[in-house]
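Why show two proteins at once? Because comparison is the fastest way to build intuition. When a single record is shown, students tend to memorize it. When two are placed side by side, the eye starts asking what differs. So, the first record is below.
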Amino acid sequence: MLKPTMEQVIIEMHKRGVTQRAIARQLKVSRNTVKNVLRAPEEGRTAQPRPSNYEQYLNLVRELFAECRGNVVRVAEELTSRHGITIPYQTLTWLIRKHQLRNTVKERAGRYHFEPGEEMQHDTSPHRIEIAGQRVMAQCAALILACSRKLFIQYYPRFTRFECKVFLAEALSFMQGSCRRCVIDNTSVIVSHGAGPSAQIAREMEALGRIYGFVFMPHQVGHADRKARVERSFDYVEKNFLAGRTFTSWHDLNCQAREWCEKTANLQIKQSLGMSPQEAWMLTKYALLQLPPVSPPVYVTEQRIVDVESYIHLDTNRYSVPDTLIGENVEVQKHWDKVIIYHGRNKVGEHERELTGRDRRITTPGHHRPLTRRKAHQGPCAEENLLTGHDEDLDRYVAELKKRAGGRGMVKLRQLLELRRSYPASPFIKAIRAALTFGLYDLARLEKMILKNTSGDFFEIK
């Protein structure tokens, strides 16, 4: 079958007086072909392909193609077994290509134009990364300014409304302003109920938008191209930022992500802009809404009762508080990177927040006293105080006696005090000095020495 351009050449040559034989010889086609082209009516010279006889089975092929999940070999087998129809494999694949049974018809894409400060786009995507040698699934949150294409990303182990507020507050601080509209998908993190233009934004997220001066706008269901600028960035992040990088912690991951945004992603020249996103942002930042003078801290407040081990439970982990508060009700403020505990108006604890672990115990030194029983008596006992401080030899004897006695030596000290009170001071001290000389600490024998020293002076001993 001749191409339309070849037919036009034949007609043009014939108009210039070239014979049919010469046309056929120069174009290397048969003279009958030249004659057929010149004889055909002008409006129908372009030959239409002859319809195939197998196209009458198109509806049947379409049904079997869907039933066989796109397996053309199975379609041919089922046509033969069920209906007794044999279609050559090449013809069957030609039918499928011609009527586009395998691929849906692509629709023409549109283009959006955004004025400076008009729109920003936000979305999340799961990425599998390695942190401290462990493979984890992380949620990559991204915000991009639609006009300048300036990008900011952060990673989180999960993405709830709390993480969303943390991210948006940090992203708007990075952008040094906000746009009037933030386009999102129909995620339940931000949307309370409904979908598309009729979606109802959650109250706490709507309040966050009022603080920074923007409104959330969910796009139509199935119309993800509405926020294509942020969607397209996730592939760039996976192939550029995550490639060949290692991370020791979530903090290290987000620090590297911020640095990559500043030094790589926002400094690359964009063909559609003719400049880098950072340069475009510098030209359009005048249109951004100013941030509030003081950005409110983002945290979640929980009420907890201190357990018998002097810990409070938060997100499957435990954080210590002073053991004097066991059984008390405390207020726990969960920030992204820390946990602060208040009892009334007093701050009683602050911990670094555990992000990924489970059943961990985070303890601050000084919160818990030792569990061992405190000794009932400490320091010298009353008997020792009565014995010491009067004579150096007696003090030495008391110290040596305690070394050889069990515990605090109170029994021995009481016996020694009784001897001192029962006998005169002079023979008592004389016996103590003799006992120190010979290393004698048996109080029964010491008493005999005292009695020997007192014989003849106070009473006769026979």
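Second record. Ask yourself what differs from the first in the token line.
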Amino acid sequence: MLVSLSVNPEAMQEKNDLKIVYTPLHGSGVVIIPKALKAFGLKHVTLVEEQSIPDGNFPTAPYPNPEEKSTLQMALEKAEEIGADLVMATDPDADRVGIAVRNQKGEMVLINGNAMATLLTHYILSQKQKRNELLDSDFVVKTIVTTDLIKDIARDHNVDCFEVLTGFKYIAERIRENEKKKRFICGGEESYGFLIGDKVRDKDANATCCIFAEMTAYMATQGKTVIDMLHDIYRQYDCHQETQLSITKKGQSGEEEIVRIMERYRNSPPNEIANSPVVKMFDYKIGKSFDFANKKVERLTLPVSDVIQYHTENGTIVTIRPCGTKPKIKFYFSVKENTQDFESLEEVEMFLDNRIEKCKKSMGL
């Protein structure tokens, strides 16, 4: 099934000497992923042996979350030791994956969940388009806190993009709703989860590892890196940058404080964020959107959820949601800027980093 998801098997045949370091972080990925990568034609898959023994105590990875850079440390060291092109680390139940690739300078850089979803969506759709394999019924799915680059890429390929609430169950729900009517291509969320094809219907690191490796091989056949591909996307669709901030409040009093914080943002939305006027507010708890610029109120179609989202005039998006299981509140920041007025992408990224810091201050953080 995994091999059937390939969108460019020729790339793997041409560049089967790609060197990969893989770690299952003491979890279940060790059973399938090395075999699957070899089935894709890759000859050089090196395991981090110390982390390849299933162990629920996670002796070498106390916090086995692929979002954490420290969790990939042993794999990154192994990559430097053998000169690997790609590092992949799956969490213990192998549904999420952390990835590092080499840039043009030969340095290993981490790919966050938004960038991973952007790259995979672009690669899969563009390869299918080249092969005339896209259908009018095709669609992709993203959550409301995942980069809007996915919407831009889908639109450019004449593919529908559905937005859902945070949580992969909502992506699976959208697949089921469209069964026998539309074809699901891929979908993802910013927290390092991605799904290709509709066989699994949950985030699946097995398929993600295989197709990301194929994409890396394909870019190598073009004399480019995955980072080059990401930069090309930024030049075409604007440079996007996303980050999140989690604030934990302790105990019952903490939960009550989070309720008050949400009500304050709900009842007193900011007039501007980082010097850009707030033009829209989406309140998923009451199921309404407020278009301040045009003085319109519309009904939302997504399920009820305690989530508030602000959109500003310059395309900045700030989303606020409390955690459902802990006294924690999360802030998601998404900013973008056209690259044409900057001498380099590094300059744009620094500019956007600064904008995110201004957003945090505007939100009182």
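One difference worth noting in the second protein: The CA atoms of residues 183 and 206 lie 21 Å apart.
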